[in-house]
Write a structure and sequence with these properties.
Layout: E1 8-12, H1 17-28, E2 32-37, E3 48-52, H2 63-66, E4 72-75, H3 90-111, E5 120-124, H4 136-156, E6 162-168, H5 197-208, E7 219-222
Parallel strand pairs: 1-2, 1-4, 2-3, 4-5, 5-6, 6-7
């Protein structure tokens, strides 16, 4: 890329939690960021623009936006639903699959053909993809992201586009306090504290950078030892 190139990223779930931390990190590093969420964040930065969009409705990105040639796509939008076997609700599964998997698929399908060679895709997964009691539906959708990332990584490798999953354990975000997960409360990782959103954002920013060009098709845990 030319030295004067201003890198452009599209980030979902931009209004809070991990998504907001990723937006802040990228802006601090000089990226221009387009954020998508249902709620507009109280962010004032000349490098940021926001698109209020409910990604679960199935609407596609406006064609002019999808075709603008983003250097990076980060799918950080997410929800939590938790229940043990015997109390699983089909609607919870549909919501989780729609937002975590179908949205990632739909946006990547629109964006990847227009990405420049050397572009980056990062999907925010979860330590739950390895299986946790009470989170089978949630974990299944996060595990699906890993399979998609590995397939896309192989397809896009000839263009130098990397695709990775960043998988945090319990992270200090509003989603952690969602009443919908009351049946499966979070556990502190072995390090004795929750993961910070800024820590997830730092790894994501690295994977979007030039030094990460040889890392692709990987799920990288930010788990404080929880996956050991």
């Amino acid at each position: 890329m030319p030295r004067h190139h201003v890198f452009q990223a599209l980030v979902t779930g931009a209004s809070s939690g991990i998504g907001a931390a990723i937006v802040a990190r990228l802006l601090a590093e000089g990226w221009h960021v387009t954020g998508i969420s249902r709620t507009r964040p109280a962010l004032q930065d000349p490098g940021y623009r926001h698109l209020c969009l409910d990604l679960t409705t199935g609407d596609a990105l406006p064609s002019d936006l999808a075709e603008s040639g983003f250097d990076a796509f980060v799918h950080a939008a997410g929800v939590m639903r938790a229940a043990p076997l015997g109390a699983l609700e089909p609607e919870a599964s549909r919501i989780l699959w729609r937002l975590h998997v179908e949205v990632a698929e739909r946006l990547a399908n629109q964006l990847a053909p227009h990405m420049p060679d050397g572009g980056r895709i990062v999907l925010i997964g979860s330590r739950g993809s390895m299986g946790l009691p009470g989170r089978s539906q949630y974990g299944a959708t996060k595990a699906a992201l890993v399979a998609m990332a590995r397939a896309w990584a192989q397809e896009l490798a000839p263009r130098g586009i990397t695709v990775n999953v960043v998988a945090p354990a319990a992270t200090d975000t509003p989603m952690l306090r969602d009443p919908a997960r009351s049946a499966s409360p979070p556990k502190l990782p072995p390090i004795g504290r929750l993961i910070r959103p800024e820590e997830v954002a730092a790894l994501t920013a690295f994977l979007l950078g030039p030094e990460a060009g040889a890392i692709t098709g990987q799920q990288i845990m930010v788990c404080g030892g929880a996956s050991l």
